[in-house]
Fold this protein.
Amino acid sequence: MKTDREIYTLLGADAETLAILTDGIRVRGPYHFEALEVKGLDRRTDGVLLPEAPGEPMWVIEFQAQADPGIYHRLVVELGLVGERHLGRVERGLIMFATPALDPRTEPWYGASQQPDPPLRVVYLKPILADLERREPGHPLLAVFLPYRVADRERLRREGPQALERIATAALPQPVRERLTDVFFSWLTVRFSHMSYREILTMFGIQTPFEQTRAYKELVAIGHGKGLEEGREEGREKGREEGRQEGRQEEAAALLLRQARHRFGPLPPELEVRLDALPLARLEALSEAIFDLDSQSDLRDWLGRP
């Protein structure tokens, strides 16, 4: 399961989430992640953490979910090339392995990472989450990681709605809650790739309240010229169906817009308009295809297909 973008989305959610997942990286003040085209490597570095305070160190972060014997050497090269772009700033490197078994422990870099205040650090996600579960079993971050950690679909069907509720009711700023929700649904969509986006939303009980839809507001007009009760009943039935359809489309479009922004960065207005205008069937198709797209250019090409 592809995880890099979701991990970087979580690391960028807020300072507390960053500190938990990196086992202690603390940033004072606002920060953001930058994706850099690294000259000389012919690749993009997605995890360059840049604090806005100039005195704070910047971090080049690599998340590793597969075995790669060259990961230490690659990060060292990235540190040099990224540092060249930000001369004068203190720079650190972090490799986050999904599990300890993926760490090749390449010397001299691994040994140096075990020293106090090293320029290159190593952490392991699985033990970090296990420790968090022991300390705070109700932490919303554990709910976010449920689809990542659990492959059993039946268990996800049972526990997923409660996990989503934990995220929705956690004492978090709204932007942080949105990021956590987006990552949760991103991983959930992969686990239930055999289902349509609408089916997944329905399974989790997500719908727009009928009273908030345009269809509900038009019920009075539908009743004109008929007996009052007949008009009300017909209006209610039509409004229910239109409201359900409109609600599903609004929910799917809003969630997909947020996923696209987190995956590809800020979108130009014309792309946002095109996404927002997609019919429900196309929104569902894109919700499954988006994980195979790597750039805004790929997204634009997909939208141009019939």
